[in-house]
Task: inverse folding
């Protein structure tokens, strides 16, 4: 469904992209509950769990790429200008600086 949302900022595309971020995170945090029905102690589930984790991380990366292409992630220096502390001027002058060259 990621290809259907487009790059425009509207509620549909933002909600799909948000779900593309939260669903893999939710699946990663509930990894043991996901494999609990098939875990009887006789079968080694380490490789299937690693594959499941890798696919969920891939889905998370796709969601983050989509957020970046929609410019919802702060990736440029202009996104952080609100946190720049500006110096307070102690004094000002109306005389322009002279050039010694």
Result:
């Amino acid at each position: 469904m990621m290809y259907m949302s487009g790059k425009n900022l509207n509620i549909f595309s933002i909600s799909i992209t948000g779900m593309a971020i939260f669903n893999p995170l939710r699946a990663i945090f509930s990894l043991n509950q996901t494999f609990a029905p098939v875990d009887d102690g006789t079968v080694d589930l380490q490789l299937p769990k690693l594959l499941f984790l890798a696919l969920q991380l891939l889905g998370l990366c796709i969601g983050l790429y989509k957020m970046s292409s929609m410019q919802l992630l702060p990736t440029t220096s202009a996104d952080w200008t609100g946190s720049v502390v500006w110096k307070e001027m102690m004094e000002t002058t109306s005389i322009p600086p002279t050039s010694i060259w």
